[in-house]
Amino acid sequence: MGATLKKYHRLSGLVIAAFMLLHITNHLFALGGPSLHITVMNFLRHIYLFPPVEIVLLTCVMFQIISGVTLVFRKGFSHQPFYIKLQVMSGLYLSFFMIIHVWAVLTARYHWNMETDFYFAAGVVNRFPEKLFFIPYYTLSIISTFVHIASAHYAKRVEQLKVFPYPMYEEIFRSKYRREAINICIAGFIITFLIMIAFSGVLYDIKS
Ligand code: HEM
Ligand code: HEM
């Protein structure tokens, strides 16, 4: 039962990760200015706002939160190794973030008929006092995504070691896997930094 839920969590995670690849790439285009970001978003919307795709994506978001929180309760926290603690903490932050973020985007777009483009996010990141909440809120969302994927990657690799026939080399492989996970996190920090300097008005003036 636990293994099945984990398998579906991974499968649904793959759908969200595919969307995140587009979403994060889109946000990196903000380095070239708001109009470039909006042009890329208008193109990508043909993919993720195509109704069957959007329904699958939003269903996966709901399933990911419910299955993730269930996995946390099953797993516990206090006696877990460090990488599992990171996985649980990043997962819990992602639950909090995805509920607010997706609800805000959908309500703004479908209920208030607002445009949910670059200025929808950059507006609150640049206005005082909203930015005191929204800068850490968005920063932690991308960092948590990468930390969650890095710890899942490390957990999977360590699991493979259980059937490894050369126990004397185990420590060498463990440190190799640790380096891979750390590199995923470093990539995440750099991407987060680039996106946040673009959205927070460090590179150009943002008038919302
Ligand atoms: C961006 C969305 C998410 C993605 C892409 C994602 C992806 C993954 C992946 C690939 C795994 C590894 C599964 C395996 O080893 O087979 C995993 C594990 C896990 N995830 Fe997520 N996840 C996401 C959101 C969440 C959320 C919102 C939570 C809620 C707390 C969560 C909690 C967990 C936990 C506790 C595990 C460890 C499962 C275990 O080893 O028993 N995840 N996640
Ligand atoms: C700096 C970080 C982020 C910013 C600035 C941001 C901004 C946005 C914006 C402006 C939209 C509206 C898109 C549109 O109208 O086409 C959106 C939608 C969305 N975002 Fe994010 N986002 C961020 C991070 C994330 C993360 C980390 C996740 C998931 C873990 C996520 C999941 C989603 C989803 C599921 C949608 C809804 C797509 C749909 O309408 O069906 N976002 N985001």
UniProtKB/TrEMBL annotation:
Keyword field: Membrane, Transmembrane, Transmembrane helix
Segments traversing the membrane: 46-72, 92-112, 132-155, 181-204
Record bears the keyword Transmembrane helix: yes
An example Gene Ontology CC term for this record: membrane
Name this polypeptide is given: Succinate dehydrogenase
Organism of provenance: Niastella caeni
